[in-house]
Amino acid sequence: MHLRTRLKRLALAGAALAAVTATLPGAAAADSGDRGHHPSDRGLSAVIRYTEYGIPHIVAADYAGLGFGTGWAQAADQVCTLADGFLTVNGERSRYFGPDAATDGSLSSAATNLSSDLYFRGVKDAGTVEALLATPAPAGPSRDLKELMRGWAAGYNAWLRKNRVTDPACANADWVRPVTALDVARRGFAVSVLGGQGRAVDGITAARPPAAPAAPATRASGQDPDPARAAEAARELFAAENATMGSNAVAFSGATTANGRGLLLGNPHYPWQGGRRFWQSQQTIPGELNVSGASLLGTTVVNIGFNDKVAWSHTVATGVPLNLHQLTLAPGDPTSYLVDGRPERMTPRQVTVRVKDAAPVTRTQWWTRYGPVVGGLGPQLPLPWTTTTAYALHDPNASNLRGSDTALGFGKARSTRDIAETLRRTQGLPWVNTIAADSAGHSLFTQSQVLPRITDDLAARCSTPLGRATYPSSGVAVLDGSRSDCALGSDPDALQPGVFGPARMPVLRDTPYVANSNDSAWLTNADRPLTGYERVFGTIATQRSLRTRGGVEDVAAMAARGGLTVADLQRQQFANRAPAGDLAAADVARACATALPDDPEACRVIGAWDRTVDTDSRGALLFDRFWRKFTSTVPSAQQWTVPFSPADPVRTPNTVNTAAPGFAKALADAVAELRGAGIALDAPLGDHQFVVRNGVRIPVSGGTESLGVWNKAEPVWNPAGGGYTEVAHGTSHVQAVGWDGSRCPVARTLLSYSQSSNPSSPHSSDQTRLYAGERWVTSRFCEKDILRSPALRVVVARG
């Protein structure tokens, strides 16, 4: 019986493949617009082979068919999350959910649905994405990418037509509806501007001109931003430790490995809920493309992945993908600004948003030659619009819809050299670094971002007093918008004006290791520091985060040891070493007797802690709660007695300052907090750091940013619920990839939060349980391995 079942599966898969590769017609004409028509799925189909953990292997004859299968399969796993995102990019959240509710934050920083809708409806009304789609490649998206988007929309719609939505998050909801290829492109635009306009949505939609005075006005005192406060606010706004996304990645060259081939470990730290989740698949067009990895929901391509020759990952970069222009307003007219002494009128964009159970809301946004007028970058950095001054936001990624073409090129790459060439040709990555390795033993790091062309010389010549404070502290340039000689200029090798060309990007090739943990490019390899780049890319010779320091220690030791295999990458992912514990726990335990003379148990627990954040680690929770309080209340300059030294950046600063004001209180408060919640000081971490899926507790290892743990977890503290009861963001899609000389890569993967957000799906928590057990999925990349899967299930998706 078992043999007959296996043969039947093989025959079915073979027939499905033959149907795809031999009989599918060519792609139909591209969808022409957003006039209520949905992309035709006539003739489109794909074969989807599901293996363990619900991972789909999608095969199609062309790009439209591949998009069709991808849209179908994403809808099957994530229809509610996807539908919610399409409401966002069409500016319709207020219509269905009310204006005051919060978004999930996946596609912008908007605090409310109304703010989100005003921004995205403005993008839609202005035809911004249509103009980008009409831009000829390579500055605009390729024909292959357009076909993928057309197919994705058709596949999503076909799944909706043929299946009942069972996810309670949107079952029977009237906002789950068909989409167009333009909707898919709009979602890609939202991802592209996440670090620029998307970061400032509330500031764009709330900016209002002051009433025009009857006579020319002088600058009102006290209304300008304070430069010192603005500098600190900008630094905090762009600091890696405050980000809701991050990553680790390391590539080892063949000089360090057991077989002379490259190795790559990618460990992105992305949200565990909402529309910025990853989703796994393999995409194949026979003879054209064969790539496996993870896609951000709603995207048509594999964003992080591998093929039979090359593997790559991304880390969120320190490059600042925006800048500000300080406008000098025309006397008597706050909606006109001066350039070289001549007035130039702002362009008003009147935007109307439908609102649930209320009249529509209409607001006006104001745009300039530089971009939209913005009233602030978050609540911590207000930029007041006075009668004499306003601020405009410049985001070069608002002209960039090429990110998916970059990913598509990576999927077809045969080497790290091809990865670099794809970046040169497409120039599409908005806010990430790239780390890659290949089967020939090469390693690559490059910070190839679409960044505003802010040179240090330009900043020195053209910064306003505010910019002279914010640029050194954060990389946020504030330029004098009244001078045309302060324009950003162009590099000859750049695809669009006002950005850096590929020749200006920080790059490191073929060193024993290249690694990044969301600090700047400087310590990509501690033995070969990268320098010579402009401040907007990041800092040089400044203090690194504990996660960077711990990561460099680990991977440098691995490279020095040599003989590395994929198994070594797997061990590194779950080593769960807490660098903060190695640096501070012994000193904290010694000082504890003085700080808590009547509580020897707390001192004993910290002293006995094994300095890891494994689920069975005792004392990890107590140290974690103390360390969070200590680092959040004691200024960074007072936390260590040995200061940072650029000559020893991995080992400094060190020696925790137990005499710092606030040390004893942080320790006492942590002890009181745990006891008040009924949590034993030496309780195993996993008893109080967990997620609940379908009523079952799943313990989670890992630790917060300030502890410096590679396997990062940013859990949600809920003492009434037993401790950390959910993960907001952290380790998401992990891949450990190498090669052994065969046609099949040696790859292990893990999607920490699993494929589906539908609690009724068998794949809503299966990989979460693997993650809890520190177990991996053996990737089935080659055809023979796919067909041998005991879980093989074949779906032929047709229009």
Automatic annotation (TrEMBL):
Pfam families: Penicil_amidase. Coiled coil: none annotated. It comes from the Bacteria. GO terms for molecular function: hydrolase activity, acting on carbon-nitrogen (but not peptide) bonds, in linear amides. The keyword Hydrolase applies. Keywords: Hydrolase, Signal, Zymogen. GO terms for biological process: antibiotic biosynthetic process. Residues 1-18 form the signal peptide. Transmembrane segments: none annotated. The keyword Signal applies. Belongs to the peptidase S45 family. PANTHER family: ACYL-HOMOSERINE LACTONE ACYLASE PVDQ, PEPTIDASE S45 PENICILLIN AMIDASE. This is Peptidase S45, penicillin amidase.
